[in-house]
């Protein structure tokens, strides 16, 4: 997806919500599992990946009006083996077929030596299950990132300043000149990609730090996890991180998809997504977008 199309979707739908599709099989409502088992044909055995895929379909259908992006996290699919990866591919295909204007991010945090990264890029950006963007770890340097940047209308989303507690272990380390490691990542990576094919992961829990980030990358999109279950403030993220094009994709996963574990789980997910969309509309209006 081109940058201008992503911006158009945000403006038209009045939202910059990304729904994280992290379907932990241990948290999927029992009613979904029961439905899968009831639908089995004679001789067919139940597999957890069936419930995972059905759960995703319900969540996608419920939240599609209120978001512009989906972010399946590969760990939740890989944990179920080959069948789990089939469920991942079917999830991507389901979004493509039914909601083709939604931006799809594979949250896989890849990154390795050049020829290996080239294979990772091929697996996510070519073939039937291709996505719009892939999260990438930058710490092996330029040759580990550039293979992902050679695809038209595809995006690399580099880890910059993440939302987890351990982010402070390394990302805030300073060199002799007082430059922090995440700042070096932002500055150096400007030589690799552009605002049209590179985004950055910045955790919502980083608050006012968005001001420092926007001084370095004023025009790039930021993928912002940590709103909701992790306690990040949407208002604070927008105050310090929003630019003239919005420039934000704010992700919520558990706070939406597991807001209820009862038979009303899809309705509650829709309600939570709608609440965030309404808040985002207010923030967009504040910026005159």
Key phrases:
single chain; 289 residues; alpha/beta; eight-stranded parallel β-barrel; 13 helices; 8 strands
Can you walk through the features of this model?
- It is a single chain.
- The chain is built from 13 helices and 8 strands.
- It has 289 residues and is α/β, with parallel strands linked by helices.
- An 8-stranded parallel β-barrel has the order 1-2-3-4-5-6-7-8, surrounded by 6 helices.
- Strand 3, helix 6 (114-125) and strand 4 (133-136) form a beta-alpha-beta unit.
- The model has no long low-confidence stretch (mean pLDDT 94).
Largest sheet: 8 strands, parallel, barrel
Low-confidence stretches: none
Q: Give the proportion of residues in helices.
A: 40-55%
Secondary structure class reads alpha/beta
- Over all CA atoms, what is the radius of gyration? 19 Å
Task: Compute the number of strand runs.
Answer: 8
How large is the count of helical segments? Answer: 13
H and E string: HEHHEHHEHEHEHHEHEHEHH
Distance between the termini: 20 Å
Large-scale geometry: globular
Strand order of the largest sheet: 1-2-3-4-5-6-7-8
Q: Indicate the mean pLDDT.
A: 94
């Amino acid at each position: 997806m081109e940058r201008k199309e992503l911006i158009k979707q945000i403006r038209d739908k009045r939202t910059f919500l990304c729904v994280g599709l992290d379907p932990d099989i241990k948290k999927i409502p029992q009613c979904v599992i029961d439905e899968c088992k009831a639908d089995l044909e004679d001789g067919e055995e139940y597999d957890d990946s069936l419930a995972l895929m059905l759960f995703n379909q319900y969540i996608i259908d419920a939240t599609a009006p209120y978001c512009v992006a989906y972010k399946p996290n590969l760990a939740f699919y890989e944990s179920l083996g080959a069948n789990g990866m089939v469920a991942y591919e079917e999830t991507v295909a389901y979004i493509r077929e039914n909601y083709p204007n939604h931006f799809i991010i594979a949250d896989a945090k890849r990154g390795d030596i050049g020829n290996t990264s080239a294979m990772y890029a091929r697996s996510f950006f070519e073939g039937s299950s291709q996505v719009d963007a892939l999260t990438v770890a930058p710490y092996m340097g330029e040759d580990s990132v550039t293979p992902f940047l050679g695809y038209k209308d595809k995006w690399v989303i580099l880890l910059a300043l993440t939302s987890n507690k351990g982010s402070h272990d390394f990302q805030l380390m300073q060199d002799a000149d007082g430059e922090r490691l995440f700042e070096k990542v932002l500055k150096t990576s400007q030589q690799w990609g552009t605002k049209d094919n590179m985004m950055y992961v910045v955790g919502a829990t980083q608050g006012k730090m968005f001001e420092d980030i926007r001084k370095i990358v004023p025009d790039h999109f930021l993928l912002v996890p940590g709103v909701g279950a992790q306690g990040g403030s949407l208002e604070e993220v927008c105050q310090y991180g929003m630019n003239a094009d919005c420039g934000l994709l704010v992700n919520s996963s558990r706070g939406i998809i597991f807001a209820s574990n009862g038979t009303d789980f899809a309705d509650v997910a829709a309600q939570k997504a709608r609440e965030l969309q309404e808040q985002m509309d207010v923030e967009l209006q504040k910026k005159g977008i």
